[in-house]
Amino acid sequence: MLSKYYFYTTKIFDVAQKVWLITPPFTQMNTPYPATAYLKGFLNTQNIASFQCDLGIEVILKLFSSESLNLLFSQLVTRCGEPVEPRNPQLSQNARRIFNLRDSYIQTIDPAIAFLQGKNDVLAHVICEGNFLPQASRFAQTDDLDWAFGTMGTRDKAKHLATLYLEDLSDLIVEAIDPHFGFSRYAERLGRSANTFDELHEALQAPESFIDQITLKLLQEKIEKVQPTLVAFSIPFPGNLYSGFKCAQYIKKHFPELKVAMGGGFPNTELRSLSDPRVFEYFDFIMLDDGETPLLNLIEHLDDKRAKADLKRTFAPENGEVIYINGSTQPDFSQLEVGTPDYSDIELDKYLSVIEIVNPMHRLWSDGRWNKLTLAHGCYWGRCAFCDTSLDYIRRYEPNTVQVLCDRMEEMIRQTGQIGFHFVDEAAPPALMRALALEIIRRKMTVVWWTNIRFEKSFTYDLCLLLKESGCIAVSGGLEVASDRLLALINKGVSVSKVAKVTDNFTRAGIMVHAYLMYGFPTQTVQETIDSLEVVRQLFEAGVVQSGFWHHFALTAHSPVGLNPEKFRIKIDNEQPGPFANNDLQFRDLTSIDHDRFSEGLRKSLFNYMHGLCFDFPLQDWFNFKVPRTSIAPDFISKAIDDQAYEPASPNHKIVWLGGNATLRSFTKKKKNQTFEMAELTFSNKKQDLVIQMKQKEGEWLMEQIPALSVFNLQQTTFAELEKSFEETTGEDFVLFWNSKPMQELRENGLLML
């Protein structure tokens, strides 16, 4: 029976609009970006017809086909049969090698793509033999295959080799055909820090590139098939911006009767002060923040059921000027009202599973299909100094119920056939994760999931065990700058020692940990950079963090740093908003430290640490300039883990048993002329039987408690209630019993304190 939350609202619109939702190239190859699925799911609740398309994967598959490679290589051939590059007649040696192997690339591209789609698995053996795929410069990293592949099986090795093969072709495209190309971003430079519209506008007037031609041909075919009245582009990143505008330009020229709208992450953060009217030569409407109500209001407007002045969070042109309209009184829809994301119209079997071996989290991300869901709107913490905390998508916190979440997960599994979930929260709330894990287990759902977190003390070892049992395989969280002074300045709400303990809890529970790392935060000293690197080294050496990524601090206009630059001792260069994008800000750090010079050393060291190498290297060896010695004690992380190993019980802790029933055998034990009545309890788990022994009275009491403690019992028992029952029944000290060896064994095997 469906949850009550899945009965659609009774308000039914008799609308003439036919909405087409598009994610333009390029976002990701392994799974669709979820924005259009979210909106389609919402429009379902309003009985409004909609269609969706991930144009990015469509272009990738068309580009990397024998047909398109034939055309691509033909553009590089003169009458003499020599390669020529349109912008520069001098091709690199690598590009020339790929050109010379063009027949091999044309022959192998279709089966290689099919293999990465999960078809033709037997091709893995041929790929691994090394004589099937042509190889260029990307394959240099496989010189030592044993080191590169580790324990990877044949299929994974083949997927990695096929990934390198595509990257070789990508290198050729960038060098000789289209310098803007990238698998997950296209013309990203044009979208970054685009304070004015000039450069992007100029690029849009240039002749169509090879990839433009593919994109626009697919766009036309789909418009003719779908026959929409409203085309709505979701632009999540700068790397989607150019293609979104290029598609909109084509629609305006060839289908002028269609209305074209834009929404998504990029306009939400970058276009909040938009004033350049040239933008509306391409788009009719640009909407901000949560898209459900603005899109619904726009559909009503286009259907003559709502005045233009009553739109919500929408930019539009008027008399040659850009106006911002927010006259709608309709509130945003709650998380319970937006419906289940709907992936219909998207051919999920077309996506490519690629493997990156360098970074474990990036591999997890790219190798597999992940359904996307949000546990809660906004961030429950919402205080980090570098984050856009003043914007709605962070500021407004609204959690879902676990019942609705699991209902939606089950519906999406039925729809997509995929059991993998990525919860895309900025930081998933620990209490909600706990409740979700319990609900997943109680419903006996088989799912695999991962999410983003804060490394806070709420993530005890027992909670991590519960999350693991529910299907959690990985978490990613911001360690940022591994300095307590800077963590306090950032307002992260954690300390380095607490992070060490929490990552240890996750790792011991069998959950992979990825750390986001930051350098160049305002006021950061050289000493703090080196000390941060030492902390990172120790975390990897201790084995409590398995994956990480360094990124340079970027200043945004809507963050606490951007709003209060004087507090962080920086000077913003472009304080006056430009007419186009205004989020990424250029600034000067008054400490005058050149943080960029550390980037290569930080990258190289992390690369080695992730592979378990070079822990004994002096930190100085990673840099080609002099750096200070670290001030961090060599055993700082190990002591932080050991010092916080004990987690005392509180009266309000919930005691939960993840295992099944037990059997009890009574027996008599003699020791030093004394006879003891004993109980032997046998618990069967998936790996082996757990057998523990205790006094008979204690064992009989425990047997009676197992059904009440079961995870499937909604009435959870507290530690205080358990203590009272034990002492009234046995007359013994419960704390001594709880800390006894048999009970510790049971706790290691599924008796949790939550």
Question: Can you walk me through this structure?
Answer:
By secondary structure, this protein is of the alpha/beta class. It folds into 4 domains: 11-60 and 188-325, 3-Layer(aba) Sandwich (Rossmann fold); 88-177, no CATH class; 358-643, TIM Barrel (Alpha-Beta Barrel); 654-753, no CATH class. Helices cover 40% and strands 16% of the residues. Strands 2-1-3-4-5-6-7 form a 7-stranded mixed sheet, sandwiched between helices. Strands 8-11-12-13-14-15 form a 6-stranded parallel sheet. α11 (210-226) packs across α12. The longest helix has 24 residues, at 154-177. 42% of the residues are buried.
In short:
The chain is α/β, with parallel strands linked by helices and 754 residues long. It contains 29 helices and 25 strands.
Strand residues, percent: 15-25%
| Structural class category | alpha/beta
Number of helices: 29
Task: State the CATH topology of the largest domain.
Answer: TIM Barrel
What key phrases describe this protein's structure?
single chain; 754 residues; alpha/beta; Rossmann fold; TIM Barrel; 4 domains; seven-stranded mixed sheet; six-stranded parallel sheet; 29 helices; globular; disordered N terminus
Strand and helix map with partners:
Elements: E1 19-23, H1 35-45, E2 50-54, H2 55-63, H3 66-74, H4 93-100, H5 102-116, H6 123-129, H7 145-149, H8 154-177, H9 188-191, H10 198-205, H11 210-226, E3 230-234, H12 238-254, E4 259-263, H13 265-270, E5 285-287, H14 292-302, E6 314-318, E7 321-325, H15 360-366, E8 371-373, E9 376-377, H16 392-395, E10 398-399, H17 402-416, E11 420-423, H18 430-442, E12 448-453, H19 461-470, E13 472-480, H20 484-490, H21 496-508, E14 512-519, H22 526-541, E15 547-552, E16 555-556, H23 560-563, E17 570-572, E18 584-585, E19 587-589, H24 599-610, H25 636-643, E20 654-657, E21 662-671, E22 674-684, E23 689-695, H26 696-709, E24 717-718, H27 719-730, H28 734-738, H29 741-747, E25 751-753
Parallel strand pairs: 1-2, 1-3, 3-4, 4-5, 8-11, 11-12, 12-13, 13-14, 14-15
Antiparallel strand pairs: 5-6, 6-7, 9-10, 16-18, 17-19, 20-24, 20-25, 21-22, 22-23
